[in-house]
Each structure stands twice: as C-alpha cells, then as structure tokens.
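Let's study a protein:

===
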Amino acid sequence: MAEFFSDAWMKSFMEEWNKEPDLADALSKINFSSNIGYGLLDEDQARGVVVVENGKVTSAGAYNGEELNWDLRASQDNWDKWMTKGLGITSLGLAYVGGKLKFKSGDYKAMVKDPRMAGPFIKTFTVMGRVTA
C-alpha cells in the first residue's frame, strides 16, 4: 500500500470518493466545493489534499502549498482506527473534544450542526478504508 496520504494514496482516495453516492452525490446536492487537507497532528503541514467541486473530487495528491478550507489532523494510530472501524457522530464528537481529531482550518461546529455536511463527512472515514493504492 502507498504511504499514507501520499500522492498515490490521495489519487486512490479520489476514485473511492467519487464512486460513493453517500459522499459525492450528497455533497453535490448542496454544491459543496472545498480544498481539504489531511495530515498528522505533529506535522507542520498537511500531507495530502483533495479539491472538491460540487461534491466530486476533481484533483487529489500530495499537499503542495494549496490554500486549505479544511485541514484535518490526527495521529497515525487514530487515522488507522477510524479507517478500519469507521466513525459515527458520537465518536466524532469524542475525537474532536478529546483532541484526537483537530481542525487546523474549517468550522467543525458548523459542519456537525448541518446533517447535509455531517453525514458525508463521517462517510469519508469509511471511504478512506477502501483505499488500496
């Protein structure tokens, strides 16, 4: 498997994202567009990025200084756990409050209050678990 959040890993994540209706189609209905970075808690910058336009990922790869609307960070162990077991709304809240999932940018509170965003956000963890790059 490619290195976690590497260019190859992110491209495989893009493919999985775009074929998941509970993610791509759901976000398309609310015209969601954003640059989302993913990385580890102890690193200065994100490792990978996806560019989402109207719910679909139009590009993905290693982070290269793009402006990020969302920058999500967690430890390698927590990413692995969430990708294997998924994440529910309660465990998401506990991860956020407990500092296991940090938002370096992006409005966590606004996102969880809007079920049109919260559901697809939680689905991303399941989709990450399908990456085979």
